[in-house]
Queue: 3 jobs
Job 1
Amino acid sequence: MTDSFNTIRVGIADMNVVKPPFIIRTAGLGSCVGVVLFDSVVDIGGLVHIMLPDSEVAKDGQLNEAKYADTGVKVLAERVIKQGARASKLKAKIAGGAQMFQFSVGSDLMRIGPRNVAAVKKALLELQIELLAEDCGGNNGRTIEFNPISKIVTIKTVNQGVKSI
Amino acid sequence: MSYVHEISPLHLDVLKEFGNIGAGNAATALSKLLNKKVDMKVPNVRVVSLDEMIEMAGGAEKVVACVFFRVEGDAPGSMFYVLSLKQAEFLIQQMTDDESFQFNKQSISELAISALQELGNILAGSYLSSLSDFTQLNLYASVPALSIEMAGALISIGLMEVSQVGDFTIVIDTQLNQDNSQSNLSVNGHFFLLPDPSSFPIIFQALGVSMDD
């Protein structure tokens, strides 16, 4: 994986849209989920780094839409469509949603990964965006990178090397 | 309006003292455990964005050894003891008397993992019990969980609670240094205490400062 000048970095609870020659990446996904939305023909895509399943828990006045699965997927879809993607050709690939620490007493906080994945899938279903591939769960962190030309998501982990979906 | 806007410099000073007491006792515990001199820096209390918090722990993709606790009781929060791999190796070598220990070997012994977990446990225990004595709040740590992973993936767990309230967090960061004259490697472990948003009024009240001051 390269980390050169043509990489757009997406932080935690953040989103952005990418067109060639740029690629887009987000690092250190744990229980968070990285959602890539792209047009299956036109070379354009977007990435959102989601932290929490549902914006209803939000207590802050100014809602950061990129933080929550329900709002993040929806707003990202709007943004890639505004930039030239077609709604009917929109596809998704997702990665993350791991359980980083194993506790014998599981609280809601510890199961946040699977809940994030479920919420992302629900949001995709509601928007009728087909989920083409996923690499979710486990207990490892992930760094993901999306290339809008090849439409491949490259996933890097600490112990399991690099793979592509 | 987020709680962060209600925090004044006085509040940050109070939190600094809060961290000072806890970390002072943790430093003593570490010193006794290793039978070596341990230095402690004045705690750093900062209001940081979620991304900055991850940067403080080494950066999203940096692989670190991290012991994680939930603080339970009157003022819940999350607590991390973060070490670089080299530093964690060094501590494990000292605790297990196995100078050859390295993370990159095929299998990491259970003893090594357990030693590091126990180290975190002792430090968190002494940190919290001294805070508990000082504030009369009931505070205790959950069972420690150890993970060797990307800092971003680990620290984000501690940000789940605060992120429901805003995009900022207050962190009490304490550095414990143990110099090693032989190898020139110093162990600079960071203790990050991230109280849950609901805990701040409780902490301030226990220390005699109101949230409206």
Note: Chain B has six helices and eight strands.
Job 2
Amino acid sequence: MGIKARFKTFATRPELKELRFTLNMIKKSPLSLIGMGIVLFFALIAIFAPVIAPPLPGRDPYIIPREGFSRTPKPPSENHIFGLAQGGYDIFYGCIWGTRTAFYVGLTVIVCATLIGIVLGSISGYYGGIIDEVLMRITDVFFALPGLILAMAFAVAFGPSLDSVIKALILVWWPTYARLVRSEVLRIKNLEYVEAAKASGCSDFRVIVRHILPNAIFPILVVASLDTGSVVLEAATLSFLGIGAPYGYADWGQMVSFSRNWIVGLPGNPYAYWYTFVIPGIFIFMFVLGWSLLGDAFRDILDPMIRRR
Amino acid sequence: MGLGAYIARRLLLFIPVLIGVTILIFLISMSFTPEQRAVLYARSPKQLRSLRQLAQKYHLYDPIHIQYINWLNNVLHGNLGWSITANMPVSQAIIEFFPATLELVLYSAPFIYIVGTRLGIISAVKRDTAIDHGTRVLAIIGWALPTFWSAILLLSVFYGHLDLFPPGRLGEAATRYVQSPKFTRYTGLNTIDALLNGEIWIFLDALRHLVLPVTNLVIVTSALIMRVMRSSMLETLSKAYITMARAKGLDEKEVINKHARRNALIPVITVTGSLFATMICGLVVTESVFNYMGIGYWAAKAAVCLDIAAILGFSLFVAIVFVVTNLIVDVLYAFLDPRIRLG
Amino acid sequence: MAQILYTFTLLKNKRVNSKHIGKIREIRMIWKSKSAITKMQALAIVIIIVVAAIAAYYLTRPTPTLIKNPDTIITTVYGPPSTLDPAFAYDGIVQIMNVYETLIFFDKEHIDRFRPVLATEVPTIENGLISPDGLTYIFPIRKGVKFHNGNPLTPEDVEYSFERMMVCDPDGGPVWMLLQPLLDRYCTRDENGNIAVSAEEIDKAVESNATHVIFHLKKPYPAFLQILSLSVGVILDKEWCIEQGCWPGTWNNWTEYNNPSTPPLDTKMMGTGPFKFEKWDRSAGEFIIVRNEDYWGEPAKVKRVVWKFIPEWSTKIMMFLKGDIDIIADVPKAYIQQLEGVEGIVCFKDLPLLAIITMVFNFNISSTSPYIGSGKLDGEGIPPNFFADKYVRLGFAYSFPYEEYIQEAYLGEAKRIATCIPDNIPFYNPEQEMYSLNLTKAEECFRKAFNGELWEKGFKVTVPYGIGMDYEEETRIALEMLAENLREVNPKFQLIIQGVELTTYEAQLYGEDPSPVPLNAAAMWWADFADPDNFFSGFMGSAGMYSWNMYFSTPYIDELLANGSSTLDPEVRREVYYELQRIYHDEVLGIPLVQLIGRWYQRDWIKGWYFRPVWEEVVLYSELEKGY
């Protein structure tokens, strides 16, 4: 064929057509665009954190600089546009650098937990029988592990740090995904197209990866996208108990924890310390919203059952 | 295979799971030195001088397997050890703390489920409309709120300002009555016990104290159910048999309820199952803020203080809860989707 | 919904025609079809109605009287007790002190004057009840007193109570306070855990006859009467104790009852006091005592006292503001503004507590310590004998911003002290010199340290603190301020602050010998009794809690301590304790941070409270009343 003809066949290939359709759908769905926008916005903040909130020279940039040691929070002012949390920690700095922490913690935990969950869940659901039993019992064991204990043990074994917390959270989170994947695989594996794939001689691996998983993944996306936010909050609880990031680390969860005893405000002015919890709270909320809209967008746009309704 | 045999087999396999959990926790607790674990037995800071003696007294220097076997032996005789954080035997602590959590979960779970699924269905049916967007954003606000945040805010508005719904499980007068010999304890749940004793005012008082914690839990957790329901519903609604049902002329409401919903529920059940089990194992923050001290509060304290006996006992309890919940969920799968074989 | 309302308005106006009938049919179909959406709306309405009904019920009830729970005092002071057994209880004794009674007790707010309680007279040298050599104390016992179970109080009960304390003597318990004066020992067991006293010794220490109880001390002990006013001096009912499985009072196998793992009286109380023990609900966090109607003295003014243990600060303060709690006392300094200027609340300020916090230097750090870096004087660590060099200690002492620290960490509400005793303890030297912030002097001293090497090479030391410990935030602030100032003196001086898991920290600090912790950043002590010996022995003696594994104690110090605590002569004692204070200051054994100042908040309808500096949490609730 001539070049022109080749190009024309290329342009009408089904994959490209699908891509164009996908892009079209994205354009048409305002919420997906908003979701992507929000995540992109936070990504930019994370990348440009050193520029937006310059760290003090010679200090660890993840430790929030303190302005004095005031035991009470101070309201927003010229030098500190979001105000100071208890202990004189700059809320603006904490929120900006906290974006990096949020991405790091949230994504690491979710991606690892999901991967482990997918692998174990799909093997369990597909093969059934003894493998299923054993894997599910192992999942039960991990389900039953109280996350707090695990986190404490890691903190003692590896030293209290964000990394210990991440490891502990991964171990606590993956069972939910495993069971979710397994239930989806159970449902799908008996459908006709799977049988067709098997009949046409696909290896098990191929069947799982190319046929079952792409259809099983959508509930995971939904749960995972919400979970990125909850991971940040969980890590915060652990930091609060002293097993996570060190005190004064730039982490939204820590900033929110700082606000815990100030929510009641002052007599006569219940919102005196609004900035301590509203501002970090907004960051967390927008982050969670962005990821969940994104998760929905993936599903709405990519799930072949839903896209062309 | 038959349902009965399936359940029996699952319950048998339960035991290796329990052993697995306890061994794991025991190993984890060994990462603390005997002196560190002895700190817990010190009843006051001035006692810390005698850490070595304390460690010896409580056999903390024995080899791991000896300590484990001792513990296992005790458990099989019904003795789960002594919880230092609770100042009572572990088994008693579980019995005393659990009813509060159970009461909270029993009253919140239905609301979370109903609110979550209804919102999810509406969202799916009215996809891409303002209602859909609005509901989703609202649910996510609730989810992203740190639990203590919404809890304290609720308390400060409805108690701090309006003095309507106070913290705690019961008011002063009701507490005095409940502790007196005139009142018999059956279950430990104030609402049910009040009804069984025929004291309606205590029942109302207990409900009054439940309003805020339940509201808090609903706000903070329904987003999860809502989103899974929505996604699952969307998938189901695009299936061929739904189009068929519509073509047959069935009323849209019937299509949704009779045909779509049942099949959309499977992933929702999984998630609800884990959510329920997680909640039963304690709602630390809600319990803390509302003075509704239940098992979550105790377990968190035990974890932070390295109360090993309590941690082990609690883990056994959690293991039982999760296994039972998973069993129920798996049985429900088969019930909802006959294509899934239990084999 | 809208359709239904529309239909109702139509029906009201009776303008019904075929169009409307069609609409009505539609509506009936909607109701019948039980659609998902209408059902949800209905459910939502039902829930809202139920909640609104409950709310309305409570809102429209007649406003309750201003004072909530008028016959009950609800207090949140000083957390749940760890045990109710007086032989074990060290902190958390306020409940014990309201149900049990002692022979004598502090006279109101005085800590050096007493009034008789279960005794009829307070022994003094003048009335002959204390022997001239200070070794014998005689107490006439009150008649007609009954325990809460009806058993009469006899001198035999008194003898039993004290002997039982000494027989039990659990590890880390309070009994050492009795053993010191009566047996001149800290413990009934030696370092290997073997019994080191004889039955005879204990038996002879306390004797009784039909009307009196006699104590025989091994040496004159100035604080003996104070000790008898504390929880180690409460009187138990011998019969009842034996019923509960305590030591039967005989000597043939008394060692079996020594150092039990579980306190036999852990959850039970049987006293003579103005209140009876009713209930301790450990899961709900409530401790309740009720008025003893058969009390031998003036009855309590309120019917019931309830301790509530509320974990969440915001909830606690809300309940206090609403009047559901009557007393809060442990308000962290950071939150006092949340209680400023509120109607109905009374605040007692500037209460001088008998409590101090200091930093303690470790002269001989364990060589395997994770906190000393390289372990050498090379700028990347410190050698184990770092603080043994006096110039280093001086440098640190001059680098600490004492005044600023109190402003920042305590909002100004704390006092400076020169050494390790508070200023309201007898024999405090008001003229004792103190160090102040002086970075020039600090530099001078550091330059002389380690023959000038330190200034060249610098140092790097990690100072840990326990995460979740008391005064965690204040400690952090102190360390950060110190670190900043050290850096200013010489940029090569690095002090790293590290939060360590609490049990690890406590084990390292108090359980290991030598301790790996270079600097104890928050050595805190609340007085057991108002006597200087209580502080000095803990901070300076070779067996002191804060000094035993820090290696700075000397035989001379021990000698002074022994002399000071075995005489009643105020001149001798003054000499001894002034000398000890001088040594502490001149040798810079530590950096004294603060003496604590307390606050007490209560609702204005509580009357009768007063402040007593020692064991200030021991409020006798029989003296409080609730009303206007």
Note: The longest strand of chain B covers residues 82-83.
Job 3
Amino acid sequence: MTRIRQFLKEAPEGAARVLQALAAAESLTDRIAKVIYEIAPIEKIPAELFLEALHQSEFVIPRNSEWYFSSLDRAELKALTEADEGYLAAVHGILLKEGLEGDRTLAGDEIPSYLFTKAGQAYHKAALGDIDGSLELYSDVAASPASGEQWLAGILAEEQQNAGLLPGYAVQPAFLRGMSFYRERDYQKAEQYLSQVATRGYVIQETAIAYHILGVIRSRRSMPDEALSLLDKSVSINSALQGSIGLVMVLNSRGGVKRDLGDLEGALEDLNRAAELADGRSLVIALNSRSMVKRDLGDLEGELNDLDQLRQMSRDRHLGIDLRKINTRHHKSRNTAQHLMSAKTNEERSDILCRFYLDNAKTYLSAKETAQALHSFRKATEYCKDEKHCAECKYGIGKSYFKLNQPDSASKYLRDAIESGCAQSDALAMLAYSLTLIGKDLNITEKIYNDAIRADNKNPWPKSWLALALSDAGRHKEAEEYARASALVPPGDKNAVLLFNLARVLDKSNDQVKRAEAVNFAKMAMTYSRPGFAWPRRFLMERGAGGKINKSE
Amino acid sequence: MHGKTFQIDRRKEFAALEPFLGGQGGVVCVRYYGEVSAPNSFVATLTALYEGVWVGGKYIQRQQIRRSLRIDRNNYKVRYLPEIRSEFSRKMKLDISVETRRVAETLNIGCNNTAGASQFIDVGIQYGAVSEADQIWQRDAWIKDLCGELRRFLEHGRFMIILMHGNKNEQQEFWTTIWNGGMADLVPHGLFLVMMIDETDKDVGQYYNYAPSHDVEIFLNPNLDQTQQTHAIDDIAAWACRWLDCDYSEAYNYAKSYVASNMDDLNRLYSTVGAWLMNLKRNQG
């Protein structure tokens, strides 16, 4: 039996009716609960006793001067059939009136604060049958900046749509829920809800934003083609609606995706259009993206113009412009432009541009913008004249492919780089690892790993990757030596991946002591890991070792 | 809720909390076993006791200004950082400047999950137009301001934060941004943190990953031992005396019979005691 049923079984007649009425509110204060109670009180029971009795029960949850029923308990109470419709309408009417006319200074202390929000008013309007008024308010909440109210509006609107109070065709509930999940970075649930909005096909702002966000999520998942198709739909709806803000934002996003896809001319077209329509933050985004596209296209003067405009706008600190980054880029591009002006020969100009794009590519690579890095390395290749720079470009392209998980292309360019004279330990290590990934034999890769170790004995990666390969081949003792040598470094240099690789190697041993040690190293890896590196946790869960971290280990 | 909450036993638990209820800062870990331990009643009583004292069944405000804030992801007002800040200010009766509101709108960037990032900011960061570091700097400065306000409040008052149970993702923002962002330093000044931990959550072990070490740990057991039953009978009888037309011995007998039939299930005992008393009142006429 639920605790509500337990309470009602013991309580005098009339308690169910009052509780059902109280459940009409998302949250309550004693003052408002008393007003509701007094509409139809329980015979011989004063309001004060009823409230004391409620507060003692476990289904009333305190909330910083307010209180509420949990969502499950509230659903159970709303499903009761004790209160008639007129009584419930009177309760909703009181609550709506408090929100519209009540003293706002009492919000949260004596009057539930949600009643003063559009979300709360939309909720009670729908309950009173004013569906258009309700949907209008829910739409207003959806269009406002991210807030807890938006989250609440999504919960309330979805509840009312499921109960049949809001019509099935209304997109506001799914839109509000989807946007909340997106803002909380739960992209999977955001996609579920926003797809519901998009597939309705209405030519309204919500559909345009839904397609936009779905496109951004696909772009984040490195699915640029799908992202582009969704953003195209958003651009089309935004254009039909003739609203500039949404259009600017989606043009910015589409410009970024086109840039990722290497369509620089297309990106420039979108960003030019966005910059024409934009102001404030959206203009910052447009100018910043456009300046990078112009640089990638070799239009340094155009890039400098956009950067100058950004520098001027940075005086408004609420725009959040990172002036240091802008100045660094400005300085580099201005110097390059000046050198190009004073260059006397084409060879000299090519050399300047090659160095410029190489420098850009390295910056992108360190910022983990690998697609842009790849593009810049390719651009640098166009101007490359000497062997040293050519080898550097090939190495950069190979490394970019390596980071983009394309071992086939990576191995081709890394081999070319090595043959062109790049003898870096990293290049050899990545080549060997890429060859391992595409199924090449250990006989081939082991030699390259050893060359990498000889090139730089302090580089831990060839040792760590070689250890994995040796472990797979059953050569446990050697694997363990290499894995320990790579991972057991001073605390300041510890790396989660290297530690986890050591755990994997030890875990393959038949020795129970070493397998226990593997669990400890996986725990240590979890201590040093970044949020996105989930393997150590999975490893521990599979072995029943949980997720507990002991930082002293 | 003041004056509407009364205490049924839990003398041992509240005795362990006495230094903090008296105004000392600290961190307390409260472990419970789902709803059978009746955690909501405990929190309601804790809040009432912290903000005031009970003397002879009456609630008397403490001389020192006392405030408390319950942080719970199911409450829209404390789900995201800007609103948490507003609630702190509301509790301390401070006005938030327009400037703070503007900065607050740009917050919640750079955290893993709980984020109120606007579409603008999110897209902006994705394409490198808006500096995430700059947003984080603004957020940290804003938390520093809040800690400054709280520290000034603690010069003449006391503040309790109750952090309700939640998983790592839900609580990460609180620990990384708020607690480690400056609030932990306020414990010696009188800040009191209560961590509610539901032992029935399968991921409860994760708590060790991010929660600070505690000064006191208490357990909310789901049933009453012999001594606790005696205390509960006393408390319920005292409550019944206030509402029923009867003397203490009669109320004691009522209470004894009620506790005897509910002592194996604390959740039921708490959930139905009010209903039971109302029924007695109504039957008395």
Note: Chain A is about 70% helix and 0% strand.
